[in-house]
Design goal:
It holds the Pfam family ROK. Belongs to the ROK (NagC/XylR) family. This protein is an alpha/beta fold. The protein folds into 3 domains: 5-95, Orthogonal Bundle (Arc Repressor Mutant, subunit A), CATH 1.10.10.10; 97-211 and 393-404, ATPase, nucleotide binding domain (Nucleotidyltransferase, domain 5); 220-385, Nucleotidyltransferase, domain 5, CATH 3.30.420. The chain is built from 14 helices and 15 strands. The strands form 5 sheets. It has a 5-stranded mixed β-sheet with strand order 7-6-5-8-11, sandwiched between helices. A 4-stranded mixed β-sheet has the order 13-12-14-15, sandwiched between helices. Strands 1-2 form a two-stranded antiparallel sheet. A hairpin with a 3-residue loop joins strand 12 and strand 13. The radius of gyration is 23 Å and the shape is globular.
């Protein structure tokens, strides 16, 4: 069957996955409808697909058979107890492939393997420091992801997409960071290209706060628009529109709030960017630990600082509690501006400091409700991440599966390309 071709830029060549234009057959509309209904869970049988899609049963049958033959769908007998012939249920096949995700932070990273339904198959924390450079981090992350694939019994050659989140400004189109601070060797490094070569499949690189926002948006019913503020080595924000799409801005810099001057000014507190009084210089994890004289990490424990701070806050030590509350106030001032600009339904405040106690979140809430107009705040929820430290992983999975089930991704599956 002949269909117009679509142009994609990813194609296997030799041992790598290089960016050369190639024509793939476009995917029939009927096939896309069938696959979308099964992937979304809206239909699990041929009859349901015909009813919901408006396609005739012969067309549905033909496309289902085609998808089953390609190993993308499988049709199984239902376990439900019914009279007569058991109904047959359509679902994504395990042979359809997997996605690999890494949410990289400055001191440790989360890595995970998920199937194409978004179900996490394996996940672990990797203690690699971002300051060791891109080559070391990518080598370590790749090794652990390959190990997780083997642990799950999944073929590394069937990885359909890989996503990496980085704590820095990211040029999403080029797949690299742009002038990151505290990340030697990362500026302009072709992260996406390297991941493509290693996994021989499409690769996407995004800001870590964007992935956290996307992960949280997937947990919220009627929770968008959503703004997610991540307080970690720096302070950044991810913005998800009412349609569930990430808002990255013209160049990918949307949400980079860490280098906005804090409302209090911060006196002469010097930021890593060279300016005084930036929000990251006052309210980030390193800034709070520094104000209390707590080392951020040790050779034995990269998360030493957060653990010590958690103990002091649990003991209700006045200086620790006050530092946490002040960070909440500083973040709250900028959050109030974001609320006025984007009018989100949900404001999420995440990162290791937000998980210690309610003091930081209370500080954010107090400022936002004080400064925000009633129209913008009366129906808004301010909360911590439902997914905790796994929010970025789930956001990466969402981004990866969107790529897999895009027109180009489905076309690759239909011709056997990862």
């Amino acid at each position: 069957m002949d269909h117009p071709a679509i142009r994609v830029t990813d194609v296997h060549k030799g041992d790598g996955y290089e960016a050369d234009p190639v024509l793939l057959p476009s995917v029939p509309v009927g096939l896309r409808k069938v696959l979308d209904l099964v992937v979304s869970g809206e239909a699990t049988s041929r009859a349901e697909i015909a009813r919901r899609s408006g396609l005739v049963r012969t067309t549905v049958g033909k496309q289902v058979d085609h998808l089953v033959a390609r190993g993308i769908l499988e049709e199984l007998e239902s376990s439900e107890s019914v009279r007569g012939r058991p109904p047959r249920v359509l679902t994504l096949s395990p042979r359809a492939g997997t996605v690999a995700v890494a949410d990289v932070d400055t001191l440790a990273s989360q890595v995970a393997i998920a199937d194409l339904t978004g179900r996490v198959l394996a996940q672990e924390t990797v203690g690699v420091r971002i300051a060791t450079g891109p080559e070391t981090v990518l080598e370590t992350v790749t090794e652990r992801l390959m190990a997780l694939l083997a642990q799950c019994g999944r073929d590394s050659g069937r990885v359909r997409a890989v996503v990496m989140g980085l704590p820095a400004p990211v040029d999403f189109q080029r797949g690299c960071t742009v002038r990151p601070t505290g990340m030697p060797g990362w500026g302009g490094y072709p992260v996406a290209d390297e991941l493509r070569k290693r996994f021989r499949c499409p690769a996407l690189v995004d800001n870590d706060a964007n992935l956290m926002a996307l992960g949280e948006a997937g947990q919220e019913q009627d929770g968008t628009p959503l703004v997610c503020i991540k307080i970690s080595a720096g302070v950044g924000a991810g913005i998800v529109t009412a349609e569930g799409e990430l808002y990255r801005g013209a160049d990918g810099a949307a949400g980079d709030i860490g280098h906005i001057r804090a409302v209090g000014g911060g006196g002469d507190v010097l930021c890593s960017c060279g300016n005084d009084g930036c929000l990251s210089a006052l309210a980030s994890r390193p800034a709070v630990l520094r104000s209390l004289g707590i080392p951020e990490s040790t050779d034995e424990d990269p998360l030493h600082g957060v653990r010590v701070l958690a103990e002091r806050v649990a003991d209700n030590e006045p200086n620790a509690v006050r530092a946490l509350r002040q960070a909440g106030t500083d973040v709250g001032e900028i959050a109030a501006m974001l609320v006025s600009m984007f009018n989100p339904r949900t404001l999420v405040v995440g990162g290791p400091l937000s998980e210690l106690r309610d003091d930081l979140l209370s500080g954010v809430r107090a400022v936002v409700y004080q400064r925000g107009l009633a129209l913008a705040t009366s129906k808004m929820t301010i909360t911590t991440p439902r997914l905790g430290e796994s929010a970025g992983i789930h956001g990466g999975i969402a981004l990866a599966t969107r790529e897999v089930f895009s027109a180009q991704g489905v076309a690759r599956m239909m011709v056997g390309e990862p």
